[in-house]
Amino acid sequence: MKNASLATADRITHLKVVVLALVASIAIMVIGITAHATDDTRGYGIASVPVKASPILMMSSDELRVVR
User: Fold this and answer.
1) Hey, how many other C-beta atoms are within 10 angstroms of the C-beta on 34?
2) Where are the domains of the chain?
3) Going by fewer Cβ within 10 Å, which terminus of the chain is more open, N or C?
4) What does the pLDDT average to over 9-36?
5) How far is 20 from 23, CA to CA, in rounded Å?
């Protein structure tokens, strides 16, 4: 039995690799589904106070910038 590489491995070794990959992918999917982010800033479906935009502010300058 040469199980050093997948090219020369026997049928049982291939089956072990496939089962391990399947179990690992299911575990990753379960962790991803159960670890969803929750928004704690909303209570009972009521949104918190909305943030309003500030008034427009325009700035200008008469100074010349000299690069030396």
Assistant:
1) 7
2) 1-38
3) C
4) 90
5) 5
